[in-house]
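dude i think i finally got it to work??
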Amino acid sequence: MRKRQLFVPKKPFNLSRSKIELFLSCPRCFYLDRRLGIGQVQGPAFTLNSAVDALLKNEFDIYRGNKEPHPLMIQYGIDGYPYAHENLDEWRNNFTGIRYTDPKTRLTIFGAIDDVWIDSNDELHVVDYKATSTQAELTLDAPYRDAYKRQMEIYQWLLRNNNFPVSSVGYFVYANGKKNEDLFDGRLEFDVEILSYEGDDRWVDTAIKEAHACLSSDTLPIPHPACEWCAYRKETAQYETA
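look at this
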């Protein structure tokens, strides 16, 4: 039997935060994407969400330059102010982000952070901006928001591996679009809330190790039972062979 060769690239192999999430949701789709170059079809861009993201960054940057807390931070009793770092623009860029190369697997893990705040103890807090429109109480308890929590924990892990002192407490800044205003008048109004979350990034090292093992295998993983893409591929394959 031929001995399986581990997937250890000569150069660091980029693996984004979103690709780790893909691995966790469906190893087969992850393998097809990262090992075989067969990615899922991308949906339309969330341009309104991107606009809200950009506006929040612009607003918090004003207080960052003055080393002052944003009024929302004062309202929620948050100690600190937006953190200024020479690489912040790079950390925010989707194609660069903050990154760390795992020396054992040669996988370079990276992700684009929305914001970072610093407290009076010089600890950093990861901040993620979210946009939604709901009349329900904002919460992190919905099952699909578990991915949001993992997203924050990977960012915490990345900052720690870049030798920054990082608090386990992060913040989600939620812009909630109002739908019941009498007039639109060309303006979309938002209520903005902050939700705190205490992260635990201990799972990240294991996920990277398992993702590396998946990439190293010569066997395509079985379809995940809850994966809609795997179900779609199975259905279309029946027509292709008919």
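Residues 13-240 form a domain with the Lambda Exonuclease; Chain A fold (CATH 3.90.320).
im so relieved honestly
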